[in-house]
Amino acid sequence: MLRYKIKFGFKSGATRDVLHTLLLYCLLILLLLSPSLLFSQSEISGIINEYSAVESIGADNQSVTVSNPELFQAGDTVLLIQMKGLGILTSPPQDYGKHQDLNNAGNYEFLLVDEVTGNTVSFTREFLKQYNAFEKAQLIRVRGYENATVTSTLTAPGWDGEKGGVLAVIVTNTLKLDANIDLSATGFRGGEPVTLPSPGNICASSDPSAYEGLSFPEGSDKAGRKGEGSASYYL
After folding, report:
1. According to the model, what pLDDT value does residue 233 have?
2. Residues 224-235 as b or e (16 or more Cβ within 10 Å = b)
3. Pick from 39, 71, 52: which is nearest to 145 by CA?
């Protein structure tokens, strides 16, 4: 065990007492300040991420081109996530929509930005998973905190078909919830109803035989449109 001895070269006992008192005050101040220095608390609310649609995946498997490169800079932590790509059955009609192949849908990983050149964002390592820009991938800037308190609703912008609908945050120690984390109605968009102008703005055809099918073309007035999902295929 290492031991340190501090010797003060003052002959006056009063001088030593004053110095000792000052040292005790300094130690007390440090003890009082240490919780705030070691455990800084950040207040967060609203939307804390920035979002950009991914336009293409780099051939080097370590970069992407994005529609909003100005949102990112070297050193940023980001989330790359594949929003769509699920394969579904489209025939026979009674099996339409059944899961066939997950493909890349739902793939995601956290990355560090190495550099931004034009609309290309490069990362410090290669991707661990596969992504397809055609199936709606997005790049999200993620903020990090030592400790954070949610002071009013924490949320994300609604999915617009290209980006949004995801909340990502990194908290090293403690996340305190003084308010809700609420992403209600920010995910995939619901199906749009089909209304006819007459008679009486009915929601669909009044002909019972029109409903004998299990699925219909997108422009049909025989049913409302299907809600959006992780499959990109539309009949």
Report:
1. 59
2. bbbebebbbeee
3. 39
